[in-house]
Amino acid sequence: MRAPGLTDAFPTAGAFATIEAFVRTLSTQASIGIFLSDPQGRTLYLNERLCRIAGLPATPKPGQCWLDALFPDDHDPICAEWSRATTEGRSFSREFRFQRADGSVRWVMAEAFPLRTSGESPTGYVGMVRDVTPRQLALEALQASEERYRNLIQLSPHAILVHSDGTLLFINQAGIRLFGIAAAEDIAGRSLSEFFPEEFLQTLPLPEAPNTPTPAAPVERRCVRPDGTHVDVEMVAAPITFDGQPAVQVIVTDITAQKETAAQLQLAKKMAAVATLAGGIAHEFNNCLTAILGFSDLALPLLVPDSRAHGHVQQVILASKRARDLVTQMLVFGRQGDSAKQPISLDILLKETLRILRGRLPENITLREWIPGAIKPVFADPTQIHQVCVSLLAHSEQAMRTTGGVLEVRLDNIHLSTPVNGHELPLPPGQYVRLAVSDTGDGMSPDFQARMCDPFFTATSSGGGTGMGLSGVQSIVSEHGGTFRATSTVGQGTTIEVYLPAMLHPNSVVVTEAVQDRTSNLTERKEFLAE
Q: Which residues of 68-98 are buried (b: 16+ CB within 10 A; e: fewer)?
């Protein structure tokens, strides 16, 4: 079945009333503006929709033209183009503006086509006008937003760059300065490998779901500039659309100064830990002196060998060794030289630290320790590990200083092959030594947990904290190949766990002479505790 053509669908030529009703209904009900003009372009008819769009009276005055409503800046060029179209007998298509009587402006798209009945000369023009103001306003808003975005990127103190498929598409001025790149004009379209090490940007994590408000985790890396200097940066990547193609935007923050400040802060915390240790040593040294004086007084009248006096003298000697050990410990832990790792037993080190801590704990805090003797050794710096112990204990003590509670310390061996307690640890499978310090304090809020490793954030009052803070703990543990994890519930307390790799073959470790000197001090302390 063939669809009828336009000629077949129209009534016969004599049915002018039917044709007029058809055209009038079409023009009145149309959702676009419609106008008719003579061959010279003079307006003969405007429908109601076009009058509303142009702001003309619903009943146009005789001879009133749609050109009368043109925006002043568009009047001359549009009139000239319309005149050329009618003179040449061709179609007209332009986008321009109407200015209404109330001052409002509407963007329109106008198209006009010549009417031909017989022969080549047009008998008039029929035109259609569509209101495109919403589209134009959206386009202008988009352009303004894009301009603000580009200005923001260029003025941002953070380095911002965009890449796709291994090609660098854009970098702002801050990025040029940060990475020491010659000029932005030399960047677009060039390979990332020309400016950055392999996988420096390609392996950055992206958000788990596209268009998610949650950004990907920031990644810290070190970059070497062309002049050989190093810069520590923190980078966050997110997928975007750049010039119509999928790309990745990377925001880079220079944290070199922050790293240096954190190192200085860690040193200050280390000295605070040494000061705390020195106070405990002074207390123990007084006890040693008391023993020395007491046994010396008792030994004076009893100098016969194998007598009680002889035993008292032995006690004097033992106390003297203990005093010497404490002084040696102070020198080892207070040394500010480079880190020197050696095989150490955490159970010995931890018991010694707890013995000193027990004398200064408030009466409302109960100390419980679960430290077996069969703990595998770890290869670590005794000074730094002691700092970790002191900081964790000080953190738990501070959490219960007002309310009191139970401070529990656990040390055990653990084999990691599956997630621990349902949580995946960023460690390879193997043998580890786990140190867990728990308190029954008020716990940490989610906001505090998110910032607890910030080196410039503390929850302790001024002058009330000791140790180096959790940021220092995290840094030292990471340097030793371990990891740090804290779990807390508000109102129930906090548990902080430290995982350090265990030494499976201690005898295979080669200890340098400098390290052996420090090991001898630790060995003497082990012998004393064994006695």
A: ebbeeebbeebeeebeebbeeeeebeeebbb
Q: What is the CATH architecture assignment of 6-130?
A: 2-Layer Sandwich (3.30)
Q: To which CATH superfamily is domain 261-530 assigned?
A: Histidine kinase-like ATPase, C-terminal domain (3.30.565.10)
Residue type, 198: E
pTM for the model: 0.38
Compute how many other C-beta atoms are within 10 angstroms of the C-beta atom of residue 274. 19
Least confident of 236-245, 333-342, 380-389, 504-513: 504-513
* DSSP-derived secondary structure letter, 131: E
One fold for both 6-130 and 156-254?
yes
Give Cα separations from 220 to 35, 424, 468, 494 (angstroms): 66, 21, 22, 28
If you write DSSP's letter for every residue of 422-487 in order, what string do you get? TB--SS-SEEEEEEEEEE-SS---HHHHHHTT-TT---SPTTT--SSHHHHHHHHHHHTT-EEEEE
Check if the beta carbon of residue 106 is closer than 8 Å to that of residue 53.
yes
The rounded Cα 499 to chain-centroid distance in angstroms is 25
CATH classification (class only), 156-254: alpha beta
Mean pLDDT along residues 362-387:
86
Question: Which residue ranges make up each domain of the chain?
Answer: 6-130, 156-254, 261-530
User: Residue 86, Cα to own-chain centre: how many angstroms?
Assistant: 63
Rounded to 5 degrees, φ, ψ at 236 are -130, 130
Other beta carbons within 10 angstroms of residue 46's beta carbon come to 27
pLDDT at 210 over 70: no
> How far is Cα 185 from Cα 336, in angstroms, rounded to an integer?
49
The answer to whether 123 and 135 have CB atoms below 8 angstroms apart is no
Residues whose CB falls within 8 Å of the CB of residue 38, separated by 6 or more in sequence, listed in order: 44, 124, 125
Asked if residues 56 and 69 have their Cβ atoms less than 8 Å apart, the reply is yes
Supply 127's token pair. Answer: 């035109």
Query: What dihedral angle (degrees, nearest 10) is formed by the CA atoms of 62, 65, 70, 75?
Result: -120
- Whole-angstrom Cα distance, residue 221 to residue 159? 14
